[in-house]
Structures are given as C-alpha cells and as structure tokens.
Design goal:
Bound molecules: fe (ii) ion
CATH architecture of the largest domain: Orthogonal Bundle
Largest sheet: 6 strands, antiparallel
Structural class: alpha+beta
Radius of gyration: 37 Å
CATH superfamily of the largest domain: Hypothetical protein af1432
Amino acid sequence: MTHDSFEPDRLIFNLNALAELGEEVTSQKDFQRVVKSSLYMVMGTFYSSRGAIFRYDCEKRSVHAIVSKGVASDSDSFIPINAEAVEWMVGLNEPVDIKSNGPFQTLFGPAVGALGEFGARIIAPLVVKDELLGFISLNEKFSGEEFTHYDMRLLSAMSRHIAVSLHSHSLLKKLVHKYSENKDLYESLQSIYYNTIHAFAAAIDAKDAYTNGHSNRVSSYCVAVAREMGITGEAAEGIRIGGLLHDIGKLAVDKTIINKATSLTTNEYIEINSHPVVGYEILSKIKFPWKGVARMARNHHERPDGTGYPDRLKNDSIPIEARIMSLVDAFDAMTTDRPYRRRLSFAEAVGEIRDNIGAQFDSGVARPFLSVIRKEVAGEVYHPTVTPLLRDSLSLSDVTRLMDGFPAG
Ligand SMILES: [Fe+2]
C-alpha cells in the first residue's frame, strides 16, 4: 500500500463517484441492477478489471457472488466460510489487502483459493448493525499501482453505501416473505371458516326434507338484493353469511316437527318459532368479522306491521339485512314444494309479495328484488346469481309486467 499525495482532481472525481453511488443505491431500480451498477462504479473508481459483490448466507454459512465482472468462474457456486472468519470481518469492518493479511489467510483457509478465481486482492466487508451481509472483492488496479490509504478509506465509504442497500433489500425480502406467509395462513384459516359455515348451512337444510339448498338460495338472493340496494363489500359479505346461517336455530328443533305434513299443535308452533332466538343465542357467541349476523337470524321473521316474531319489531326498527332476508326467505318457501302444499309459480309468489307489502314485506326491498331478476333476465348481469336458482323460466316481458304493479319503494 502506498502513501497518498494530494490530487484535487482525483478527490473531486471520487467525491462524485461516492455521490453517484449514494444516488444509485437509493434509486427505485430493481435490486440486481442497483448491485451491478454499484460494482461497476466501485471498479471504475479504483481502475479494477475484475470484481464481485458477494452475499453472505448465514444459514448455508457461505458466500456467493451475486454480481461479478471480468470473472470466468462459476459465480453461482457457494464458498464456505467459518464463523470465526465472519466474526473477524464484522469486527474489522474495513477493506483489507488479503495478500498481505495473515489473519485473513488463516481464517479463510480453503476459501482463499476460491476467491482467487475471482481475482480477489482487496476485500471490503459489507456490514450493517454487526451483521455481515457480504463483501466486495477487487483485483489489483490495471495500472499496477498499489491501493493507497486514501483508496481504502474511499472504498470503505462506498462499501457502507452498498451495505445499507443490501440490508434494506433483505429487510424488504423478509417483509415480503412474512407477508406471503401470513397471507397463506390467513387464506387457509379463511377457507376452514367458510367450509365450517357451509357445513352448518348443509346441516340446517338436511333437517328439512323439502327445503334442500334453502340456506344457500336465501344467502344468494340476499346478497343480490343487498348489492342492488347499494350495500357492498364487507356489509354484503355479512349478509351472505347471515343468509347461510339464518335458520341455524332449527338445528335445535325436532326434525318431525319441521317435516310434519299436517297442521302443528300449539307446542309445536312454539318450538319451531323459537328457532330465531335459538339461532341468535348460538350466533351471538361467535365473534364474526361481520356485523349483525346474529341479529339477522333473530329478526328474519319480523314483519313491518309488528306482528312478526320474536321481538315484534316494526318497519325501520327491523335491521335492513333482516328485512331483506325476510322477503327472500318467504319467496323461497313459497316457490318450494312443502309437505302440505305444492309450490307457487314465480308470478304467484311475486303476487303474494305485492299483496303483503307494508304488512309482511318491506316496500324498500321488494322492488330491488324484482329489479335484480329483471336485470338478469334482460342479460344485463355478467354473472347471474338469482335466475339460475329459480324453477320457472322467465321472459323479460313477464318480469317487466310484474314489476309495473310494484310501488317504487
Ligand atoms: Fe326461519
């Protein structure tokens, strides 16, 4: 190593190189390009023809070149280095001329030969917060001049810039990895959650021999009507779940009562009519990510005229989700065969709804329900969700005619 002479032009050149490097490593370019151009700047500054930036992999306890220039060697190969060598480099944290450095030769042992293939003469550690991220290797200057103290100090400053860049990249990689890990976990939990809800819906429907698929249909109808009414996102998702679980209280009702073809006794009525409250008691113990699921189950048999059950709520005091559910629940019951009667046609069921607006059904829900069906029949909806579930095939003129008799809501 030679002593320095003061050269103003060289100082300005090097300061510029340092500034440019600082700019480069903080740029938004992709990581590989940043590392590559950083190496080229360092090599250009020190007139080196061969160089590499190595990354230390603490799990593999080895280094490998992530970018190199003027090197014929296979840059993908991993060069093992031992823990003492890593510790020594972290403690040193300054560039070193490996040719004349005894500790390096001893500690790096077999790695010295492998680094020789990269033409390594000067090694500059890349250290952040006492962690070895890797190092830069440079060969001799092609002018044949020795590295001066000043060169080593400049290389040290440049290494710190590059180390920070490597460090923030690895932090980012860790963050991305953690994010994708959490995302996978969240998705698997979510699918378990949804599968459980669907299993419950299937169990509810299995109790009633006639209403197979009722919970799924109510859920789909509810979401379609809610969207038509401008309820979207998580609120619509809550309605979908509420629809699937609205009759969960029926799990506690005797199956023979649910499937009875003859009229019910008073006690049987009491038992079957308890299902909204039983459902509420079950669902209110579950911490759903959506609001009001338990209330939807509780209030899906309320009526705007206050004669429903269990709370005898009136008009707007019935949650909007429950008002939607009440209508589509009744519609599905009417259009499904029951033990004691044949199903109604679509037009007949719509007629029933129209005749009971204000008493049993909310006027603000009935029209959006028909509007969804009209749009689907007219082919205005990309993925129809209601009409594929209906048993009648509908013409646009029929639906439009039925809608004409409806209040605007
Ligand atoms: Fe019900």
